[in-house]
Design a protein that fits this description.
4 strands, 30% helix
Length: 83
Amino acid sequence: MAVERFIVEGDLRAESFLPWIVRHLQRLGLQGVPIRCADGHVEITLSGPADLIDAMELGVSLGPIDVWVEAIVRRRLENGDVS
């Protein structure tokens, strides 16, 4: 089981983005909760199998039609580090 933090940057102002992320986390069987840190920045700490976390990155990069994802920064968290 891997634990990672995604920092998603771009034009993410659409209200549909956070619910969209939650639906995709659930579809992939991942655990995680997105947090909107600012208009152009969403942070997600998620856990699950590494291959499914990779699939989540691909899904988020494509995103819903009403957002524009410019970058996703991933950081693997060790030993439950959530800082």
